[in-house]
From TrEMBL:
<comment type="pathway">
    <text>Purine metabolism; urate degradation; (S)-allantoin from urate: step 1/3.</text>
</comment>
<dbReference type="GO" id="GO:0004846">
    <property type="term" value="F:urate oxidase activity"/>
</dbReference>
<feature type="binding site">
    <location>
        <position position="169"/>
    </location>
    <ligand>
        <name>urate</name>
    </ligand>
</feature>
<feature type="binding site">
    <location>
        <position position="169"/>
    </location>
    <ligand>
        <name>5-hydroxyisourate</name>
    </ligand>
</feature>
<dbReference type="Pfam" id="PF01014">
    <property type="entry name" value="Uricase"/>
</dbReference>
<feature type="binding site">
    <location>
        <position position="57"/>
    </location>
    <ligand>
        <name>5-hydroxyisourate</name>
    </ligand>
</feature>
<feature type="binding site">
    <location>
        <position position="152"/>
    </location>
    <ligand>
        <name>5-hydroxyisourate</name>
    </ligand>
</feature>
<comment type="similarity">
    <text>Belongs to the uricase family.</text>
</comment>
<protein>
    <recommendedName>
        <fullName>Uricase</fullName>
        <ecNumber>1.7.3.3</ecNumber>
    </recommendedName>
</protein>
<feature type="active site" description="Charge relay system">
    <location>
        <position position="12"/>
    </location>
</feature>
<dbReference type="InterPro" id="IPR002042">
    <property type="entry name" value="Uricase"/>
</dbReference>
<feature type="binding site">
    <location>
        <position position="58"/>
    </location>
    <ligand>
        <name>urate</name>
    </ligand>
</feature>
<keyword id="KW-0659">Purine metabolism</keyword>
<feature type="binding site">
    <location>
        <position position="57"/>
    </location>
    <ligand>
        <name>urate</name>
    </ligand>
</feature>
<feature type="binding site">
    <location>
        <position position="238"/>
    </location>
    <ligand>
        <name>urate</name>
    </ligand>
</feature>
<comment type="function">
    <text>Catalyzes the oxidation of uric acid to 5-hydroxyisourate, which is further processed to form (S)-allantoin.</text>
</comment>
<feature type="binding site">
    <location>
        <position position="238"/>
    </location>
    <ligand>
        <name>O2</name>
    </ligand>
</feature>
Length: 280
């Protein structure tokens, strides 16, 4: 029997970075979590414990902080590109660097005071290899709800089906989306705002026959409105809201009182992409 080392990667996960810009009395605040994942010729450390090609994950974390000081932190896509390119170009053994970034929003309360904004988190993933660079941006935790204009009917009824058909239900989800940019430079902030607005507008404006249909409408809207985006991947938990049976109390319930359940939940996932030229 021959045993061999398969795919492997390593890096520092979830470095927490807060950067204050003190240009004057009015400070700026950036709050990030940064994960570095490196891959390449790392067989020796696994097979023999020879660490001569291993850049410590501690050094990777230090690089995140040093670069934040030296280069500042503006758009997370740019900060990710800087880091990923650095690891591939400075480490002979490393052929692929992926940097995942999440940015938490803070609302200004004063010149040097901030309140953590709830709601969505902006994300980016930058992957650099010796031959290609890919930038993906995204959003997680964007919770949206339509209190009508949603049905779910006409589905398979097998011996285990008890779900009643719904002609008017609540549709709620937490939008977790990633979209791949066609290029590696651009107006990242404007693009993020535009994509997010397109996702939300499609959710609001689609009369939904299924969350699957809404998913496709959301991805499609992004590709229609944002030429810089090549592909959108969506992961949409169906945040079920079940009508409460109030008949035992002699009350009707015309779509007004619901129990919001948190698990189990349907999980609808899909990719919406541009067709290859020539395909229909
Ligand atoms: O929009 C929906 N899609 C489903 O696939 C599904 N399945 C289910 O039980 N409820 C729903 N709703």
């Amino acid at each position: 029997m021959t045993i061999v080392l398969g795919a492997n990667q390593y890096g520092k996960a979830e470095t927490r970075l807060v950067r204050v810009e003190r240009g004057g009395p009015r400070h700026e605040l950036r709050d990030l979590t940064v994960t570095v994942v490196l891959a390449g010729d790392l067989a020796a450390t696994h097979l023999t414990g020879d660490n001569s090609q291993v850049l410590p994950t501690d050094s990777q974390k230090n690089t995140v902080y040093a670069f934040a000081r030296q280069h500042g932190v503006d758009q997370i896509e740019d900060f990710g590109l800087l880091l990923a390119r650095h690891f591939v170009s400075s480490q002979a053994a490393i052929s692929r660097a992926r940097v995942d970034l999440s940015e938490y929003a803070w609302q200004r309360l004063g010149p040097h005071s901030f309140q953590r904004a709830g709601g969505a988190t902006r994300t980016a993933t930058v992957t650099v290899t010796e031959s290609a660079t890919v930038v993906e941006s995204g959003v997680t935790g964007l919770v949206v709800l339509n209190s009508t204009d949603s049905e779910f009917t006409g589905y398979v009824k097998d011996p285990y089906t008890t779900l009643p058909e719904a002609k008017d239900r609540i549709l709620a989800t937490e939008v977790n989306a990633r979209w791949r940019h066609a290029g590696v430079e651009g107006d990242w902030a404007g693009s993020y705002a535009g994509v997010r607005a397109a996702l939300v507008a499609a959710f609001v404006e689609t009369y939904s026959l299924s969350l699957q249909q809404t998913l496709y409408a959301m991805g499609r809207r992004v590709l229609e409105e944002r030429p810089e985006i090549a592909e959108v991947r969506l992961s949409l938990p169906n945040k079920h809201h079940l009508l409460v049976d109030l008949a035992p109390f002699g009350l009707d319930n015309p779509g007004e009182v619901f129990v919001a359940t948190d698990r189990p939940y349907g999980l609808i996932e899909g990719t919406v992409q541009r067709a290859e030229p020539g395909s229909s």
